[in-house]
Write a structure and sequence with these properties.
The complex is a heterodimer. By secondary structure, chain A is an alpha/beta fold. Chain A is 41% helix and 21% strand. Chain A folds into 2 domains: 228 residues, 3-Layer(aba) Sandwich (Rossmann fold), CATH 3.40.50.300; 44 residues, no CATH class. Chain B has 3 domains: 143 residues, Rossmann fold, CATH 3.40.50.300; 68 residues, no CATH class; 37 residues, no CATH class. The chains are: A alpha/beta, B alpha/beta. Chains A and B meet through helix 7, helix 11 and helix 12 of A and helix 7, helix 11 and helix 12 of B.
Chain lengths: 289, 286
Amino acid sequence: MRALDLRNVRFRYRGSEAAALDNVSLEVEKGEFVTLLGSNGSGKSTICMLSNGLIPHALPGDLQGKTEIFGFDVKEHSVAEFSTKVGIVFQEPESQLFCMSVEEEVAFGPENLAVPREELRERVEWALELVGMKGYNDRSPFSLSGGQKQRVAIAAALSMRPAMLVLDEPAYALDPVGRVELYQVLIELKEQHGMTVLLAECDSEEAAKYSDKVALMKDGRVVSFGKPRDVLGDPERLRSLGIMPPQVSEVSALLKERLDGSYFSFISVDEAERSINEMFTNRKRGSKP
Amino acid sequence: MIPRVPPSANQDKIISVHGVKFVYNGGVQALAGIDIDIRRGDYLAIVGGNGSGKTTLAKNMNGLLRPTNGSVTINGVSTSEQTVAELAKVIGYAFQNPDHQLFCSSVVEEVRFGPLNLGYPEAEVAKKTEMSIEAMGLSSVKDQPPFSLTLGERRRVSIASVMAMDPQVFILDEPTTGLDARETDDLMEGVDRLNLDGRTVVLITHDMKLVAKHAKRVVVMSEGRIVLDSDPRGVFTDLELLLRSKLIPPPVAQLAHRLSSLGVPRDVISPEELVFHLMSGRGALE
C-alpha cells in the first residue's frame, strides 16, 4: 500500500475547459519525500488538493482514473476521513490561520475530533516542539514572522497525527534562512518520524537537496519522475519546462561543454565541491611530468 | 530659514535618506537609523530577512510613510513638504501584492489611470500607456481585465501602470515572489531595460540569485539598519554578516568559497565566471 497512488488520473475543474491533470500516474511510497516541480499552472496544486480529497469533494469537477490515498479510493471517502491521514499546508499561512493564539490554532483540528483534553494538550506540545515553536502557545499567530506562521500552520496539520504532509509552495514568501529552517523541520519529520512528505515547488534548489524523488510537471502532465540527480541534471530542459534549474547544474553543464566527456553531473553544492576537487586535483597531478 | 545645500553636491542624488527612524503606531520600531543616498541610474537591491525593514524604508522613500525622525529628500526637497501625488511623479512604487493596486476593468484602463490623473493631455496619456504596455510585454492582453491574468502578468501590469507616470525612480517590492522561472525572466527583462534607459531601479527582494544576476549595488538590511552597502560581488563574500541578516549566498557563490584552493576567487557570482576561473587556473598548471 502506497501513501499516494495515482493511475491515469484526469481532472477538469467545473466550468473550465482545459484539463488540470492530463493522464497523471504518480506513486508516493510511505516515508518518501517527493517534490512536484513545475511552472505556475502546471498542475502541482491540483495534485496537492487531490491528495487529501479536497478534489473532488470540495472543489468539484470531472475526475477520472484511480486515486488511492493510503489504499482508500478518494471518491469513496470524505475529506474528514482523510484529515487524520493527510495534513495539508498552503502557500500563504495567513489563509489558514484564524485563531487568537498559537495553541488554539494547533488544537483546532484534534479538538474537532473530540480528542480528550489530556491527549489534546500532549498533541499540541508535541507538534509545537517538532516545528521548533515550543513556548509560543499564548502568542497571537499574527504577531509572528512569516516563517514562524508557516511553522504554526505545519504544527496545526501535525496535531491531527497525519501519516503524510502535503505542502503547496510553503516557502515562497520566506527569507533564505526561513526557507532552510522550514526544510529542516520537514527533513526531521521524515527521518525521525517516518512522515511522508509531498511538496509543490517552483524552484529546484531545495528539491535537489532534500527530495528522494522529483516529479517534473508541465501542462497537467508528469513529464519525468525519478531521483533528483536523474531528473534535475539538464538545465536546458528544466528551463524549457519553465523551471529554474539548480544553479550548480549550470556549472556542471558548462564544464561538460569545455572538458570532453561526462565527468561532471552534479546538482548540489556538496556534490559539486567533491567532483570538481577530484577532477582538477587529478588533472593537476597527472599533468606534471 | 532652512539651510540650502548647494545644488552641485546634490546633482546626481535622487533620494537622500538621512538619520531616518520609523516607529509604527503601537510602538514597533521598524527603522533604527538609516542613511543612504540613491543616485540617478542606480540599480539597487535592498535585501534582508522578513521584518528587517525593507518595505518600511521603501514607503518612507515614496511618502506613503513619513519618518518619525530624520529626513528623506527627493531631488533635494524633503518628502514632508510634498504630497504623495507630487512624489508619485518622481518615485514609482509597485506593491508586493499587485492586487493591492489593480482595480480597473482592463489593462489599458489600469495603465492610463496614472498619467490621466497627473493631468497629462490625452495624446500624451495614450502614448505613455501604449509604450508602457509594450515595454512590459502586455500588448496581447491589453483589453482583458487584470484579474483574469496570471500573477506574473498582473505584476507586469502593476509595473506598467507605474511606468506610464514616467517616474525617475522605480521601487519594486518583491516583484518576483510567486513567479516561476519564465515569468521571472520576462519581468526582469523589462526591469533591466528600464535601468538601461537611465531610470533608477530599487529592487526589494530576498532572492539572492536574482540580486547576483541583475543588481549593480546591494544594500543589506537587518533589524531596521543598513549593515552593508556594496556591489553584488562584495556582498556574498561576508558569509557571517549575511547569515546574521537571514540571508544565504547563491549556490554558485557558496561553491566558489569552497574551491578557493583551486584558485577560484571568493567573489564569483555566476556559473560562467566560476567555470572561467577553473579553466584558466587549469590552463596555468598545464
